[in-house]
Amino acid sequence: MSELRHDLLTGRLVLLAPGRGARPDTHARTRAARGGSTSCPFCPGHEAETPPEVARIPPTPAGGPADGPGWQVRVVPNLYPIVGGADAGPGASGAHEVAILSPEHDATFGDLADDRAIDVFVVLRDRARAQATAGHAHSQVLINQGKAAGASIEHPHAQLLAVDFVPPAVTVAVDRYAAAASDPVLADQAEADDHQTVVSGGAVQAWCPHGAASPFETRIAATAAGTRFEDASDGQIFGVALVLRDVLAALGRVLDTADGRAPYNVVVHNGPAHDDVEYHWWISIAVRTSVVAGFEMGTAILVNTVDPRDAASALRAALPG
Prior knowledge:
Elements: E1 3-6, E2 13-16, E3 55-57, E4 73-77, E5 94-100, H1 114-133, E6 138-145, E7 157-163, H2 168-179, H3 184-191, E8 197-199, E9 204-207, E10 218-222, H4 234-254, E11 264-269, E12 282-287, H5 294-299, E13 302-304, H6 308-318
Helix pairs in contact: 1-4, 4-6
């Protein structure tokens, strides 16, 4: 039975229609081969194929060659930036950076060991902080995993875009926060009852929201997080990195995708870098197993074919032991 739901955190309308999940799919499924590529610019040994790095973990040893091997996380300017760069026109100034998650070509964020996952989020937090210090108005951190999620390079990587204006969606989110009677992030987590909670009981929570707009949509937040991702404490960063890693690992187990990986977008919903506003930064995971089709485009009502309770149950069962 279909049901119209209101998403507490974003204000969007969602039609939960589990029956649609039974539709036949006549498209061919082939499993792509995995493995390193001799032409991948993000693999070790190809450091000269990217712009000069702006950060790395571990740091280059004293006297060692710049942009050499030995890194675990490497951050470089995007060679094809959305914003920033020498040719940036009016309104498009800023910075666009790529964080290569691992020297291993096939290591998604869900595959990383504890210290490696933490390293990635520490360097992303620190780069967002550097962009705020440089005067940029807002930093957007994201991971596009897989071609269906918008990634053009197979080697797993994150991105950070810093812009010189506060994006409209961020302004709307901040205004919704100001108008709410209580913290909308915590209220959204509370609305997701025990059946929709994926990770609970600690300083970082993960849940499938009541108004999930797509199958297996998941949200993650540090309970005591403040306005800005770049201001997060080490403890918050460590906790969020590990919970995100575990949820993504669970997704990989639950979803049997054609290429052996679940395509997804991870988005850090961040507050403005300099405005004195109340907000609670949080993370969303949108799994790209479905597309926004004609009905959604015509009505702005999204359709979800997987009940959030069922999604959360499957993810809980698949969490790393």
